[in-house]
Amino acid sequence: MNLAVIILAAGEGTRMKSKKPKVLHEILGQPMIAYVVDAARTLEPERIVVVVGHGSELVRQRINGGVRIAIQEEQLGTGHAVMQAIPELEGFEGQVMIICGDTPLITGRTLTGLVSSREKSGAAVSLLTAKPTDRTGYGRIVRDGNRVLKIVEEKDASPEERLIDEINAGTYCFKKDALLFALGRISVENAQKEYYLTDAVEILALQGEKIVACTVEEPAEGLGVNSRSQLARAARILRRRINECHMFSGVTIVEPDLTFISSTVRIGRDTTIHPNCYIEGETVIGEECEIGPNVRIVDCSIGDEVQVEQAVLKSATIEDRAVLGPFCHVRPGTRIGRGAKIGGFVEVKQSEIEEEAKVPHLSYVGDAKIGKGANLGAGTITCNFDGFEKHETVVEEDAFVGSDTMLVAPVRIGKGAFTGAGSVITKDVPADSLGLERSEQKNSIGWAKKRRESRGKKSVERRSKR
Ligand code: UD1
Ligand code: CA
């Protein structure tokens, strides 16, 4: 049967005590709402409608295309939020799944189960329930024997109802006509003076409609994030889930509790991730790499047998067998070639470092092309910025740049050429030549000895005066 999904994301999230809309709070580099949208997408629904309100522009920006947006101007409750989405269901017939945007741990598999149990039972609605140890803040499922009678919100619940161990996870699958019927009858007669979506269940039950409740196996899937503490709990669970998945596929994670890998990252077999690594975005890592400890990688493509230690890498390509760190910063637009080396306290930006080239110590390389096998000595700086514009530096194949060379761009060091240590190179150096910019050294023979001796005499005089 046809399926549409409504995701509720208009609430402010008062309990987060934040300027930011709740569903934009991040877990492993992605906003909560993104996880929910991804889970919904696995169902391949005919359409997805996201209800936005508080900070609607910001929320809209963080949702990738392919969804419809409904606006809830005033946050009058979850039932009211769903009402705002109905115009976007124009022309759609079938079943409507509703998910709260603050339940980032929900999986596509569970959502599929919820749809199929509604279909099999022919119920007007199937709803997801959980039995977590901490039930604070959730709606409770009130049953008569097996039959679901209603959902009662904690604020409206009697002391007996609060003892019920089954809670509402905020995910439902309705027949569209049953949903419309119930929405028309929801009122604000409750403790929060809000239109509760949860009332739809009692309304349908009173009509004699069939209601099925499916309890999630892993209670965490039903975790609704209302506070920062729940955000941290959700992050911990998600992190474990992702790390387990990588370990299952052949990645060694030395300490999973100290490893932060986003759900979007792919890692090859026999790669080892040492503690305290943050690997985010569209990052792909090959096989047999050694990553970490203490590495942050965002949106990078990393080949096989790469070693990275104590480093920050963003939007870069690192080819096979390159060695990076400890303590380097590789910035966007950089490609580090096969077997190349980027050493300690080196920053590389928007540059191509070819195969087997070496930038081993204390350098800044920006807007540069460093040829195959070239070597930049310690302290080499590409002076790429003249205060107005950026300029390019080219160091050709097998060139040898002496320590502490300033390469004032635009400038080119030819193939196999040398620069003398300490030179400020402002003119191109032709291939196989030496570029040297340094005043001549003068040695004053015996100067130091004389100085010591005269100093020695003075200090003897001073001492005898005392
Ligand atoms: C809701 C349920 C509760 C359930 C819990 C599961 C109701 C009345 N209560 O409570 O039974 O146990 O979720 O996590 O539905 N939202 C809007 N517009 C609004 C209000 C909320 O879009 O006017 C969105 C929020 O952005 C959020 C979701 O709906 O993503 C749930 O709202 P929230 O206020 O967190 O509801 P809970 O109190 O957690
Ligand atoms: Ca909630």
Overall description:
- The protein has 466 residues and is an alpha/beta fold.
- The chain has a domain at 3-222: Spore Coat Polysaccharide Biosynthesis Protein SpsA, Chain A, CATH 3.90.550.10.
- It contains nine helices and 41 strands.
- The strands form eight sheets. A nine-stranded parallel sheet has the order 14-17-20-23-26-29-32-35-38, with no helix packed on it. The protein has a seven-stranded mixed sheet with strand order 5-4-1-6-10-7-11, sandwiched between helices.
- It is elongated.
- The structure holds uridine-diphosphate-N-acetylglucosamine and calcium ion.
- Residues 8-11, 22-23, 51, 72, 75-78, 80-81, 100-103, 137-139, 151, 153, 167-170, 196-198, 224, 226 line the site of uridine-diphosphate-N-acetylglucosamine.
What attributes characterize this protein structure?
single chain, alpha/beta, 9-stranded parallel sheet, 7-stranded mixed sheet, binds calcium ion
Short description:
With 466 residues, this protein is α/β, with parallel strands linked by helices. Helices cover 21% and strands 30% of the residues.
- Supply the number of helical segments: 9
Strand order of the largest sheet: 14-17-20-23-26-29-32-35-38
The chain-level mean pLDDT equals 96
What is the CATH level 1 assignment of the domain at 3-222?
Alpha Beta
Structural class from helices and strands?
Answer: alpha/beta
CATH superfamily of the domain at 3-222: Spore Coat Polysaccharide Biosynthesis Protein SpsA, Chain A
Instruction: Determine the fraction of residues in helical runs and give it as a percent range.
Output: 10-25%
How much of the polypeptide forms β-strand, as a percent range?
A: 25-35%
Largest sheet: 9 strands, parallel
Distance between the termini: 105 Å
The total count of strands amounts to 41
Give the overall silhouette. elongated
* CATH architecture name of the domain at 3-222: Alpha-Beta Complex
Give the oligomeric state: single chain
Could you list the spans in which at least 5 consecutive residues all have pLDDT below 50? none
